[in-house]
Amino acid sequence: MKKENVSSLGTIVTALLAASCCIGPVIFAVFGTSIGFLGKLTVLDPVRPYLLAAAFSMFGYSFWKLYLKKSIPCDCEADRRSRRIARGIFWTGFTALIFAVLFPKIAVWMLG
Predict the structure, then answer these.
(1) Which residue ranges of the chain lie beneath pLDDT 70?
(2) CA distance linking residue 45 with residue 28, whole number of Å
(3) Please, are residues 24 and 38 in contact by the beta-carbon 8 Å criterion?
(4) Less Cβ crowding at N or C end of the chain, within 10 Å?
(5) How far apart are CA 93 and CA 78, in angstroms?
(6) Where are the alpha helices (DSSP H) in the chain?
């Protein structure tokens, strides 16, 4: 697997881990469930800034590899297809990262 695909997938995973501290309690609250262990779902909250920093660094590396670094031009179909797949994964990671950053504010807006 290409390095930019790995870093884009890493962006998705770390962004979802960063948002997981808030997703669980909000899902239970949206469905009207009150469970005593909701406080335990925030175990990743102290490491959220580090996860977001890791996600942003992976996102920056992927952006550099996909859009800024000059590669050897190849007009073959396989190269265009792999570049298109890599960019699709990249933008999915960007969406997950924005979701992870904004989720606490969105949750307060939805439930507040």
Answers:
(1) 1, 3-4, 21-42, 71-75, 111-112
(2) 17
(3) yes
(4) C
(5) 23
(6) 3-30, 48-63, 77-111
In the three-class reduction of DSSP (H, G, I as helix; E, B as strand; rest coil), residue 91 is classed as: helix
b/e code 63-77 from CB counts within 10 Å (16+ = b): bebbeeeeeeeeeee
Tens digits of residue pLDDT in 8-29: 788 788 877 777 766 666 666 6
Q: For the purposes of burial, counting CB atoms within 10 Å of the CB of 84, is it exposed (0-12), middle (13-18) or buried (19 or more)?
A: exposed
CB neighbourhood size of 27 (10 A): 12
* Tokens describing residue 95: 């969406």
* Distance from C-alpha of 93 to C-alpha of 10, rounded to nearest angstrom: 8
Contact 44, 20 (CB under 8 A): yes
